[in-house]
Amino acid sequence: MVGILRGIASGMKYLSDMSYVHRDLAARNILVNSNLVCKVSDFGMSRVLEDDPEAAYTTRGGKIPIRWTAPEAIAYRKFTSASDVWSYGVVMWEVMSYGERPYWDMSNQDVIKAIDEGYRLPPPMDCPVALHQLMLDCWQRERADRPKPSTTLLEPGSPEAASSSVGTVEDWLQAIGMEKYRDNFTAAGYTSPEAVVHMTQEDMGRIGISSSAHQNKILTSVQGMLSQMQQMQGRMVPV
């Protein structure tokens, strides 16, 4: 299932790189072949954006797939690559829940109200914590706090991948899109992965990382790093 999600993410990264916003990303619009290779389809609502990462497409009318759509796109009809990332989080939930309907039998109005009050879909049964955390990252209220299309569950940018291949703290922060905190880590003495893996949320606040979204993203990756180190130690046997 993670392979399926990576395939969808790869397709969405391609669209973003080509300056397209899909506007209707959902499991129903993913084509799957006999080898489980996935392709994003149904471009009836797609639009070309300006060559600008902050560009938005504003629509004046037409139906919006509420359960898959970011709050700002519902409220102001502004669609960006960041609103596609929100939709990708819902697709992740659909896949990991084996095709359940997002928000179940809630009405569209109830969904809008719940999201506005901070409700987010809970983890599907047996869903790994890291995957649900990535969904929550995709569902950040502020679009700037969501993962970029280039880092959503793709090899170099996903927290779990970054944690397994990191060489230095600077490389790790860059891999998870948190390089702006490089000086914070250095000044506080967190200069090696071995030191970083023991950090807590209180430590994050102490070194100047005040955004809860950024704290959660960093901690998720830290937990992945720690898990990787423990697995490697478990495989080491005396000669």
UniProtKB/TrEMBL annotation:
GO terms for cellular component: dendrite; early endosome; plasma membrane. Residues 1-173 form the Protein kinase domain. GO terms for biological process: axon guidance; cell adhesion. Its EC number is 2.7.10.1. The keyword ATP-binding applies. It is a single-pass type I membrane protein. Gene3D superfamilies: Transcription Factor, Ets-1 (1.10.150.50), Transferase(Phosphotransferase) domain 1 (1.10.510.10). It is found in: Cell membrane; Early endosome. The keyword Transferase applies. It comes from the Eukaryota. InterPro entries: EphA4_SAM, Ephrin_rcpt_TKs, Kinase-like_dom_sf, Prot_kinase_dom, SAM, SAM/pointed_sf, Ser-Thr/Tyr_kinase_cat_dom, Tyr_kinase_AS. Its main location: membrane. Residues 164-228 form the SAM domain. Pfam families: PK_Tyr_Ser-Thr, SAM_2. Keywords: ATP-binding, Cell adhesion, Cell membrane, Endosome, Glycoprotein, Kinase, Membrane, Nucleotide-binding, Phosphoprotein, Receptor, Signal, Transferase, Tyrosine-protein kinase. PANTHER family: EPH RECEPTOR A5 (PTHR46877), EPHRIN TYPE-A RECEPTOR 4 (PTHR46877:SF18). This is receptor protein-tyrosine kinase.
